[in-house]
Specification:
By secondary structure, this protein is mainly alpha-helical. Among the domains are: about 130 residues, no CATH class; about 280 residues, no CATH class. The protein is about 60% helix and about 0% strand. Strands 1-3-2 form a three-stranded mixed beta sheet, with helices on one face. The longest helix is centred in the N-terminal third of the chain and has 30 residues. The radius of gyration is 23 Å and the shape is globular. The relative contact order is 0.13.
Length: about 625
């Protein structure tokens, strides 16, 4: 499993937390615990332990690598093929075990939790025919499922140093020794990935030439750095110094990098170079073994629906057209009438008055602006929520050493114990990618009232069972809600005095509709990379650099980008349904609280929760 930066900490429930969780939740008002709950809760606790052992990075990210789980702080995920096989067997066994807990014996909360886990097990089980890449329960839960073990955005070469630097805490010598053990494990993981690269190549699964080229360039850049200056070593040195610990830890890390990590990375680089002669230029997974069925599985795990590629494609076309019409009206109101909507937005994006200087000072100004946006939205939250949360957020640029393959903006949620706040990363390779009017919607998506707000419900209330925390990677809900949070920014009045910001918000919504079109275009309709980039530029009004990065992302993680607009569309459908059904009893704040408290679930499960909310007369019983 590749540890994913966006594994969201949000869910709900009323079963007992196991000992490591911050506090035990109260029984749900919708029904007290039943005798059957005790047995299934014990099973949920066992599932949680299995998941933490399989992905020790999660234990660290959530602050759970202490006490009885302290050994996990010295480990990284197993990246071998044997682990993939075990993951699928575990899913089959899990489905059989869940069948032994009849719904009739369970409380409403336990049935909700069972339904969530059942869906996740089914997705993991159904990955079995696709014996390449990253297609497992764990990869689906971390939004990392895809056809290539190593790419410009996946593989421990890209994630390892960032993870250890940003999430592995060092307060004691034991913590420092655990860090060193993980540096050893980086070398092991590189070797495991390389073996799988060779195995996949034998099946005809090789990343497209442009993905290989980018990946090779990044790896060459890493190997050009002296071992003593490698982030794996310097990050530990900084942590040890901050903790006032004695010892030659940085020198020891440097030695491991030089003698183990770099040779393993060089071997992986040589393997990738050796594949270049066999690599084609087609981007879509249709060309891979069982490719059409594979893309249907990817869409299912990303959207938690059974929508076909054609249905997703047409949804994107229709919504793109509708949003464009609204944008055209706003542009005309400002006297901007020449050219297409995308042409006019592109011109606005190139206007120097809308750009921060492409300098270090300009980047600092941009980050200060983001902090101001977060501060500005906080007083408006009472319009959309009854919930009172602190939701602290740090804003940082994506580290320079991974910015070429990283996403444009993303969130690392805070630890469960509240010791580490959420971190909002923005890719500042070029500030020209970020005209000022594009930043508010991204910020509301990633921070408040989006991902950081969801995560704060977990870290500040302690009302969630650990299993639901770990099984929360339902992309359509996670990203659909964050896209809905962008919409709330508009509805709360954040653009009342900012016409350009409202256009930026609509452009962001339009862009998510564009994603539906280009993702399905690449993987189902056999579009070329160039065709997808051009279509995205023509319809999103963004730069070629930004759209090329996005299209390459969809090549590496097919279907993931479709979850956003599919989820957002369903949340709005459910909101309209609740408003119509409840009439004067409808309160937006209660509905939005329900979304956050229900947490990351498949869309079918979310629909059932909304029906229960309607039957309860608009009262949130969570």
């Amino acid at each position: 499993m590749s540890f994913d930066r966006r594994h969201l900490l949000t869910a709900a429930g009323a079963t007992a937390l196991i000992a490591a969780s911050p506090q035990a939740p109260k029984a749900a008002k919708s029904g007290a615990a039943t005798p059957g709950d005790a047995a299934i809760n014990r099973y949920f606790a066992a599932v949680s332990e299995d998941l933490l052992k399989a992905a020790p990075e999660q234990a660290t990210a959530y602050g759970l690598d202490t006490g009885a789980r302290a050994a996990l702080k010295s480990e990284l995920s197993d990246a071998s093929m044997a682990h993939i096989t075990a993951d699928r067997a575990w899913c089959r066994a899990g489905l059989a075990k869940l069948a032994s807990f009849p719904d009739a014996t369970l409380s409403p909360t336990a049935r909700l939790n069972k339904a969530v886990l059942h869906y996740a097990f089914e997705v993991g089980r159904d990955a079995a025919p696709f014996d390449y890449g990253e297609n497992t329960f764990l990869s689906a839960q971390s939004e990392a499922a895809g056809p290539y073990v190593v790419s410009q955005q996946s593989g421990v070469y890209s994630s390892g140093a960032e993870f250890l630097d940003s999430q592995h805490s060092v307060k004691t010598k034991t913590d420092a020794e655990a860090y060193l053990a993980r540096v050893h494990a980086v070398a092991r993981t590189l070797r495991q990935e390389t073996e799988r690269l060779k195995k996949d190549a034998g099946l005809g699964v090789i990343a497209p030439d442009f993905i290989l080229s980018n990946t090779i360039s990044q790896q060459q850049g890493l190997l050009a750095i002296k071992a003593a200056d490698a982030r794996l070593a310097t990050a530990l040195g900084a942590k040890v110094k901050a903790a006032h610990l004695d010892g030659d830890y940085q020198a020891r890390a440097t030695a491991i990098v030089e003698k183990e990590v770099y040779p393993a990375l060089a071997a992986q680089l040589a393997t990738l170079k050796g594949l270049q002669a066999k690599a084609g230029h087609d981007a879509g997974v249709w060309r891979l073994p069982n490719g059409e069925a594979y893309y249907r599985w990817l869409l299912r795990e990303s959207t938690t629906t059974n929508l076909t590629p054609d249905e997703v494609h047409n949804m994107g076309l229709e919504q793109n057209k509708a949003i464009e019409a609204r944008m055209d009206g706003l542009l005309r109101a400002q006297g901007l009438t020449g050219g297409s909507v995308s042409d006019r937005m592109a011109a606005l994006g190139k206007d120097p008055k809308n750009l921060f200087p492409n300098t270090d000072a300009g980047r600092e100004q941009l980050i200060a602006y983001l902090n101001g946006l977060i501060a500005g939205v906080r007083p408006k939250l009472s319009k959309a929520f009854n919930l009172k949360l602190n939701a602290p957020v740090n804003v940082k640029r994506v580290p320079v050493d991974i910015q070429d393959g990283a996403g444009q903006g993303y969130m690392n949620s805070g630890s469960i114990d509240g010791s580490r706040p959420s971190t909002y990363y923005i890719n500042l390779k070029s500030t020209e990618t970020w005209p000022k009017f594009s930043l508010p919607s991204l910020t509301y998506h990633e921070t408040i009232p989006g991902h950081a707000w969801q995560g704060a419900y977990l870290t500040e209330t302690g009302k969630l069972p650990l299993m639901r925390i770990l099984v929360s990677g339902f992309n359509a809900y996670v990203e659909g809600y964050a896209l809905y949070a962008e919409q709330l920014g508009d509805e709360m009045g954040m653009y009342d005095d900012d016409w350009a910001g409202r256009l930026g918000y609509l452009q962001a919504q339009k862009f998510r509709a564009v994603r539906l079109v280009v993702d399905t275009g690449l993987h189902a309709k056999r579009w070329s990379r160039e065709q997808a980039v051009q279509w995205a530029m023509d319809n999103a009004g963004r730069t070629r650099l930004a759209m090329t990065s996005e299209i390459d992302r969809y090549t590496g993680t097919p279907g993931q980008a479709c979850g956003y607009k599919v989820g957002h569309t369903e949340i709005n459908r459910l909101r309209d349904h609740a408003k119509a059904a409840l009439g004067p009893k409808y309160d937006l704040r209660n509905f939005d609280d329900l979304l956050v408290k229900t947490g990351a679930v498949p869309l079918t499960v979310l629909g059932a929760q909304v029906e229960g909310y309607i039957k309860a007369g608009g009262v949130v019983n969570l």
